[in-house]
Amino acid sequence: MTDQTILSGEEIEALMGRGNRVSGQGGSDAKQPRSFSFGTGTAPASAALPALDRLNDRLAKKARELFEPILRAKPAIEADPAVLRPLRDWQAEQPSFLALSLFGFKPLKGVLAVAMTADFVTRLVDCYYGGAGTALAPSAKEFTRTEERLAARIADGLVAILADTWKEVAPLDLQLKGRETNVGAARIAGADEGVVVCRFTVTAPGARPAKIDILFPAAALRSVEGALATRTEEGCARGAEWRAQLSAALADVRIEARTVLARPELSVSELVQLKVGDVIPVSIPASVPLLVEGRTVAVGSIGEQDGKAALRIERIKNRRDGQ
User: Given a cut of 90, is residue 155 above it in pLDDT?
Assistant: First the structure.
């Protein structure tokens, strides 16, 4: 037991419902309860993000063909891990002026967004018209007509690729809702609600990396979480099964292999004077190559087995060794 009072008299009265205030230093009103709708939290199901990562890797590979004609070079495109964030936090990190395309994506509810920085759009236009892609974005808060068209082409191309990668999960009907340049217009969800940010890093040879964000409302992904997890895992399993079948089929394919015992050298005059009965001296080296389609796959020595000439393999060539 202890003589120290654990609760004050005012605190006891508040607990018993006889007081409307809990006094502290300066006093403060008791917090009032607020309504909460269950099922609207920001945490997505755990399987959604890893499944999105697998889909985004496929999207990044296919997107190279979209950027190559514009950049006049094949860029490296990497998909960052998908992350869940409050929309307000994502907006706070963006410049006030950017290229923002908004799409409906039925049967999922909500709006999907594709965001690119103004600097990246300007550099794309510079590359498209023969520049090195080093132009700086103008200080004006408005795109030129050329920049608008090119930004729209990239955004539309990306969502078309996205729909193709998603077709086994859910057939998406993507419809343009609008294009904006103000990050505050990204009304994908409530400011405090969650969005899943899928970020892609585009790096052209000799140019600075650029970021493109594709944003999903987290609530929309919950409706397809099961399909995301199941279909992408099935896709990986089918890929492994397909590789095994291909390996088994290739194992029965017969190819022509040959070896070169000697490479005598003749002058042009000696060559034109050759006649039946001439003898060309040759020397067989200690090691001779085993060739398949002109490529050395192994090296060995010539011998005899069961009355036939044979090649004994002494070393397998590493494919990195070259010819």
Answer: yes
Mean pLDDT (whole number) for 213-238:
71
Q: What is the pLDDT of residue 25?
A: 45
Domain assignment of residue 219, yes or no: yes
Q: Calculate the alpha carbon distances from 49 to 107, 187, 199, 209, 240 in Å.
A: 19, 22, 13, 24, 22
Same domain, 200 and 291: no
Residue 107: cis peptide before it, omega within 30 degrees of 0? yes
Q: Residue 236 and residue 46: Cα distance in Å, rounded? A: 18
Tokens of 14: 């508040």
* 7 falls within a domain: no
Residue found by looking up tokens 């006093």 in the block: 27
Residue 286 belongs to a domain with what CATH number?
2.30.330.10
Please check whether residue 33 lies inside any domain of the structure: no
pLDDT in tens, 238-254: 555 556 666 776 777 77
**End-to-end CA distance of the chain, in Å?**
88
Three-state DSSP class for 250? helix
Q: Which H/E stretch holds residue 267?
A: none
Examine residue 23 and state whether it is found in any structural domain, yes or no.
no
Which candidate, 103, 102, 143, 91, places its Cα nearest to that of 120? 143
> How many distinct helices (H) and strands (E) make up the chain?
8, 13
| Same domain membership, residue 239 and residue 150 | yes
d(CA 118, CA 140): 10
Residue 274, domain extent? 257-321
Domain count of the fold of the chain? 2
- Residue 214 is classified by DSSP as E
- What angle (nearest 5°) sits at the alpha carbon of residue 197, between those of residues 141 and 45? 155
